[in-house]
UniProtKB/TrEMBL annotation:
<dbReference type="InterPro" id="IPR003661">
    <property type="entry name" value="HisK_dim/P_dom"/>
</dbReference>
<keyword id="KW-0597">Phosphoprotein</keyword>
<dbReference type="InterPro" id="IPR013656">
    <property type="entry name" value="PAS_4"/>
</dbReference>
<dbReference type="InterPro" id="IPR000014">
    <property type="entry name" value="PAS"/>
</dbReference>
<dbReference type="Pfam" id="PF00512">
    <property type="entry name" value="HisKA"/>
</dbReference>
<dbReference type="InterPro" id="IPR035965">
    <property type="entry name" value="PAS-like_dom_sf"/>
</dbReference>
<feature type="domain" description="Histidine kinase">
    <location>
        <begin position="436"/>
        <end position="663"/>
    </location>
</feature>
<keyword id="KW-0808">Transferase</keyword>
<dbReference type="Pfam" id="PF08447">
    <property type="entry name" value="PAS_3"/>
</dbReference>
<dbReference type="Pfam" id="PF02518">
    <property type="entry name" value="HATPase_c"/>
</dbReference>
<dbReference type="InterPro" id="IPR036097">
    <property type="entry name" value="HisK_dim/P_sf"/>
</dbReference>
<dbReference type="InterPro" id="IPR003594">
    <property type="entry name" value="HATPase_dom"/>
</dbReference>
<dbReference type="InterPro" id="IPR005467">
    <property type="entry name" value="His_kinase_dom"/>
</dbReference>
<keyword id="KW-0175">Coiled coil</keyword>
<protein>
    <recommendedName>
        <fullName>histidine kinase</fullName>
        <ecNumber>2.7.13.3</ecNumber>
    </recommendedName>
</protein>
<dbReference type="InterPro" id="IPR036890">
    <property type="entry name" value="HATPase_C_sf"/>
</dbReference>
<dbReference type="InterPro" id="IPR004358">
    <property type="entry name" value="Sig_transdc_His_kin-like_C"/>
</dbReference>
Amino acid sequence: MNIDNQQELYLLVMNAPVGICVLDAHTLKAEIVNDSFIAVAGKPREAILGNFYWDAFPEARPHYESALAGVILKGSPYSNSEAERKVIRGGKQETVYMALVYAPLKDTAGEVKKVAVWVTDNTLQVLQRQKVEESEKFARTVFYNSPVAKLVYTGPDMVLHQANEKMLEIFGKGDSIIGKPIMEAVPEMKETHLFGAYQHVLKTGEIHTQTASRIMFIKNGSPYYGYYDYTYKPLYDAKGNIYGVICTAIDVTEEVVARNKLQEAEQNMRGAVELAQLGTWSIDVASNGLTYSDRLIEWFGYDPAAQDYNEVIPILLEEDQQRVANAVAWGLNPESGGLYDETYTIIHPTTEKKRILHAQGKTVFDPEGNPVRMNGTAQDITIQMELQVELENQLQERTEEIAAVIEELRATNEELEQTNVQLIHSNGELEQFAYIASHDLQEPLRKISTFVQLLEGKITDHLDEKSQGYINKIKDATSRMGKLIRDVLAYSALPKEDATFVEVNLEDTARNALEDYDVVMERTGAQVTWNELPVIKGIPLQMSQLFFNLIGNALKFIRPDVQPKIDIHCSIATAEEIRSVHLKEGMSYYKIQFTDNGIGMKPEDTQKIFNIFQKLHRKSEFAGTGIGLAMCKKIVQNHNGEIDASQSNENGAVFNVYLPQNIN
């Protein structure tokens, strides 16, 4: 704007219907302030006119100082349609909204000389718009966050205009279907009556309501049938024309299914009552009326409809009458919990046939605790009671017979106690034998060995070849006898009941066993490999004996001129393997397999090798007492496991050791 004509500018500003304040672009002092500006600013003219603009409006400076500077620098206007300000009017602080414009006023050379500040109070319009927006926001929040499924259809093609999450969940679709005709977005709805109902509402404006409507949707690629209560209400535009429908839907599938199940349960209950040959009855407390099923009418010999239930009491056996009457009265008392349970005898008034009935009932109380109705069933237990009497008689007979058997068992227990004493004595003798075997039997062997060595030292130079052979045989025999005694003692010492199970690292056990055979392995060039071995709970010494014997067995029975190879492999035993060695099914076992390439054994020998003193080869071929594998079997069984060699053949031995993963 050109500002050369100062008089015209002044008149324009002062008579403008909007608030205007003209500032000098260099000093930012207010040169002109019209009445409209003062009204909006809420400050007196003397506080603005002739003063530095930001001294007059310090509260606005942090928000608009840079904008004003930009207008002067660049020569481009700045506007804010909803500038918020706090003003004091009538001694009270108010929040006002105004349209604010900083307009540059340039001379003919295009230089910004002045800035016109234009303000218009639009507080009323802003507040009205905010109220509308808040109302719309609230409506959207209610719509989209409603726990009830909601949607809006528009137009003759039933376009899905809006839908909340609950409704999309029912459809089994994402929000990508919004804005599309529903019959295209959810094609399975073409098979329903929903489009016809929608068209009817568009045409007539009538509200359409449906309860428990069965509708099929495709969810996750499969058909899903649900039950829904829904309502179609027409939507009107400003001219009163119907342009769409708002639908509210409630998924009542669970309720319908539950109701169907209840009906089915009631039907099943009636069938069960009939199958169990039960009679049903009901007492109406208000009228004292008694209702019987057909079966009870037959049993009692009369129909008590519209009669006082007390009239049935005389039909009961005399000694049962008062007890039953008291039980009914107590069952109608809230303190009883409403339960009634009695057994009584009735006498048919015509046939005089007696029946024993077991009746049970439950009282229904109103909210104040007053009895309303007692419902119950009755069962004819005449035969059961007769059988019970017979059984009681038989039970008495059996009791007497059992007493006689108990007396016999008492005598047998005394004999067992005597046998136990004898076993304890025998165990003591066995322990004594072990001591003798470990000391007294080995002592003569040591003396024989010592004297043979002394004799050999004295007469070596005088012995012929045959005599020397005799001495060597004596020495070999004493050595074998000593080893045999030691092995027998080791075997007998295995099943110690007081042995403590601790954690045993089988990796360390295998490594320690190999250290004992390092000389043999170096001499034979044997190669031993294994995968990762587990930690188990066991007896460390026995585990060492097990690995020592099995590795030693493989190093003993090797093939000439063949490098011995031993592989130890651990895995989890399969259910079939556990059954094959007759271990407890349902438990987890490690399978530790020792495989070698030695001389092996015949398949028919794989069972007997675990018998004590059993050897498959002559002592001249392989040394040993025949106890090592028997010890292995006993060690594994001590650990609740098993060992077998069924996979062995003449190409090598295979020993499978099964040990529980968890030993308590």
